[in-house]
Amino acid sequence: MLRLSEYETDRVVALRFRYIFLGLALMTLPFLLPPGLACGAGLGFALFGLGGFGSALRKWRYDPGLWMLAAFLVLTLTPCYAYFDFRILRAIFAHGPAGRPKRLDWLEARRSVELALAFVVLWKQVRFAYSAGVYNWRVTRLTKRVRKT
What we know:
Elements: H1 6-14, H2 16-32, H3 41-56, H4 66-92, H5 106-148
Helix pairs in contact: 2-3, 3-4, 3-5, 4-5
């Protein structure tokens, strides 16, 4: 099911600061750790985005017109995330010299697990924006009807 329940939507809003700080911490790991151990930028970027969506849509129950912001965020940021993840996938499965497939080592395995977790977070982000947008669109439609009468 695409829509989150109201409890799950409120939970994302309530945990938005944790998502932002955890995402920032994971995004700084590649700068702090040696190159062989650095991992976490993709998942950190996704968690930071989920916290940003939660912060932007925190008034989803009663602020009319917020559904447009939800649609705008999904339509503009999802292609950015897709390109970012595509670049990581292309680096993992790139061909080595002479066109031979590259052997997967521990670093590529970690990146692929991180990318799978990032996709799960991104899917929750899209579901959150869709749920908040649909509910808010209904609220906006009802407030327009009340104003007309």
